[in-house]
Write a structure and sequence with these properties.
By secondary structure, this protein is of the alpha/beta class. A nine-stranded mixed sheet has the order 5-4-1-8-9-10-11-12-13, sandwiched between helices. A four-stranded mixed sheet has the order 3-2-6-7. The longest helix has 15 residues.
Length: 332
């Protein structure tokens, strides 16, 4: 299978499940806690590797026990980590993830070593032989990591490698200028409905199609809008496809967007149409939301096939997506 390079974050998620979110100054007593590997880029990488896709990861951890633990976990899951740097001054990122009874997550993070990845630490060898470079939007939040992301884009452009960018919810306002400047280099842009309208400057009540069209006009070749329980929208020039969501009961939305991006990337680099890739993306995002934590370890071929079987889609299209999954080399 073709390889994919990913530049993004690696962190430890401490997840606290609470009955209700407290007001400022209040106290939320967790009913359960757990910890696991997280990070937008790392989650996508782990899912792709689990489906049998070779993944070259570019990032940074602290030179600490948590960094050792994260890298060992990624390596066990098949992610190539030789291009992950270690920082002497800052710790590995820790996220505190508060999940309320509705399954919605709220995050508190200290970005630590992730934000300190420098442009000169990005090795062009990490992109050698890859079919796609995928960036997590978190990499555009701060310098020097932003410059590292831009350096990887330069390498990809020079080598003729397509580029995808995933914008997690809540950071669009901070990285808007950087994203707009990058749009002419982006082949696939993943983002949510509110973020699409914000980035396009259409206003919160604008028709989603208008926002997607403006982003295409600004240079992006393909806009993929994550719409949660409403499925997804793929928008390109002269092509639009609306895909239904898989029917699941969400318990934790942490990592669902990362899983969505992984599903779409897996489909596209393996020859699926945007319509087929969006079906796989919706299924992956849904499966990730059925477990506590990032959900990356829960996504296997059998669960994806089961999720697709419950979607209201054309049988021939579902068959093509399912055939690709059944041929995948990863664990079931």
């Amino acid at each position: 299978m073709p390889a994919v390079a990913i530049l993004g974050d690696i962190n430890v998620d401490l997840t606290l499940q609470i009955a209700a979110y407290p007001p400022e100054g209040g106290e939320g007593i967790a009913e359960r806690q757990s910890h696991g590997l997280g990070g937008s880029g790392a989650n996508t990488a782990r899912i792709l590797a689990g489906l049998g896709l070779p993944v070259h990861f570019i990032g940074k951890t602290g030179r600490d026990n948590w960094g050792d633990w994260c890298l060992a976990a990624m390596q066990r899951e098949g992610v190539e980590t030789r291009w992950v740097r270690r920082d002497e001054a800052e710790p590995t990122q820790l996220n505190v993830v508060v999940v309320s009874a509705s399954g919605e997550r709220t995050m508190f993070a200290y970005r630590g070593a992730n934000a300190r990845l420098a442009a000169e630490e990005v090795d062009p060898a990490a992109l050698a032989g890859t079919a796609l470079l995928h960036l997590s939007g978190y990499a555009l939040l701060q310098t020097p990591q932003r410059e590292a992301a831009l350096r990887s884009v330069d390498y990809a452009e020079t080598a003729g490698i397509p580029i995808s960018l995933d914008i997690p919810a809540g950071i669009t306002g901070t990285i808007k200028a950087a994203v707009l400047a990058l749009l002419p280099t982006i082949d696939i842009l993943f983002l949510g409905e509110a973020d699409a309208r914000l980035l396009a400057g259409t206003g919160a009540d604008a028709v989603l199609d208008l926002a997607a069209e403006r982003l295409v006009e600004a240079g992006a070749r393909q806009i993929v809008v994550k719409r949660g329980a409403s499925g997804s929208l793929v928008h390109r020039r002269r092509l639009q496809f609306v895909s239904p969501a898989a029917r699941i009961e969400a318990v934790d939305t942490t990592g669902a967007g990362d899983a969505f991006a992984a599903g779409y990337i897996f489909g596209i680099v393996n020859g699926l149409s945007p319509a087929g890739a969006s079906i796989l993306a919706n299924a992956a995002g849904a499966v990730a939301a059925t477990v506590i934590g990032s959900g990356a370890e829960a996504i296997g071929r059998q669960k994806l096939v089961a999720a697709i079987a419950g979607m209201d889609i054309e049988p021939a299209l579902a068959g093509r997506v399912t055939a690709l999954l059944e041929a995948a080399a990863g664990p079931a």
